[in-house]
Amino acid sequence: xxxxxxxxxxxxxxxxxxxxxxxxxxxxxxxxxxxxLTTEEQLEAANTEIASLKDQLLRKIAEFDNYRKRTIKEKxxxxxxxxxxxxxxxxxxxxxxxxxxxxxxxxxxxxxxxxGVELIYKKFMDILGKQGVSIIETTETNFDVDIHEAVAQxxxxxxxxxxxxxxxxxxxxxxNDKVIRHAQVVVxx
Length: 189
Hints:
CATH class of the largest domain: Mainly Beta
CATH architecture of the largest domain: Roll
Helix content: 55-70%
Structural class: alpha+beta
Number of helices: 3
Strand content: 15-25%
CATH superfamily of the largest domain: Head domain of nucleotide exchange factor GrpE
Number of strands: 6
CATH topology of the largest domain: Nucleotide Exchange Factor Grpe, Chain A, domain 2
Number of domains: 3
């Protein structure tokens, strides 16, 4: 009986060993398959990410190109129509000038015509002032090459007028502190 028990135990041990060996062989195959699937999955995930990044890059390039085109168009419109605000503000002055010209033909009172033209001039200068245009003051100021252009030099009647502006032959203008036309002046020496 002892021997039978030993034989049975031996058979059971052999069966267990065989089962373990058989089970370990598929486990190795399964592990290799899992590694292979994992590598394939990783490759597929990487390819998906690359495609996504390419798509994002192409979208950003297109978005930047559209931005650049829109900016160029806006600059062009600004250059072409930048003076629109100023021109629109000057149109009422043109209307007043047309009315004055029409009334000058039939006007009998010259003083009324002069007064009308002075009002139009004042209105025009007010509009330019609102746009940032100002007249360069020249009356008895020191000669300044940055804002004046000397067209003549005359002997000064008094010593105080030496190096100063004696007369203005053409009015100068500034636009927001930038000289847009130098005042042409006569300087005392």
